[in-house]
Amino acid sequence: MSRPTLRFAPSPNGRLHLGHAFSALTNARIAQNLGGRLLLRIEDIDLGRTRPEFVQAIFDDLAWLGLNFDGPVRRQSGHFSEYVRARDALAVRKLLYPCFCSRGRIAAAITEREASGARVARDPDGAPLYPGTCHALPGDEVRARIDGGAPHTWRLDSAAALAEITAPLVIRRFAPDGSQDTVPADPARWGDAVIARRDVPTSYHLAVVWDDAEQGISHVVRGQDLEAATDLHVLLQHLLGLPSPAYHHHGLIRDETGDKLAKSKGSESLADLRARGVTPGAVRAMLGFA
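-> structure tokens emitted (290 positions)
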């Protein structure tokens, strides 16, 4: 049997904080306990927010923490052609459809439905489900708009995708000691999710599923904020004929108000901690890895 393989996969759109350190250290501990490998992946499909200095900062912060990784570093921005093949494999089976709606148009449609008293279903993150505006556009109109360069995303036709499922979808979960169980997956609660964005030919969901298969990831360790997304990921794995890893979703590091740490909130970074004299040992201790 091949060795268990895990990955730590940060995005270079800001500086790493204690939440990232906790996830990286958790991955490293579990990889060691399982006698496995730990890979590093840079999830940089968001070209508008990725910065070279943030990529280097990831390497610097992880080295400062004393973490070592196996194998080459995979950068998603170098694999867009692979994601195109995966996207097209779904589109040719009519499991995806192009969506020309802007965020503003979608928001207006949702507001109109709510104003009429209609119930608006929401995904696990609390966002309204896409109302299906572009789902039934005539083929001639779709081709003309694409040929004319109209910006569009590619959405999963969830009804068509779920119709291909012949057995119950399940998520394999594992505990840090390696024990496993299974729970049902419910991808329908994500509706017609975006599978490829306007600006790049993929989304987080498609890229992470493809990358995990390409890198031979057997165990995924990530935060609880991504637990619900696993429903959609196992569906994509099934549709693309990819293996499904076992998943462990760890608790989140929160600030004094109870909110999770986030780059967008300006949470104190590891570089900030380092600048004020906090040591790697102190960081490990405060996160429970002394």
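Residues 1-78+254-290 form a domain with the Rossmann fold fold (CATH 3.40.50.620).
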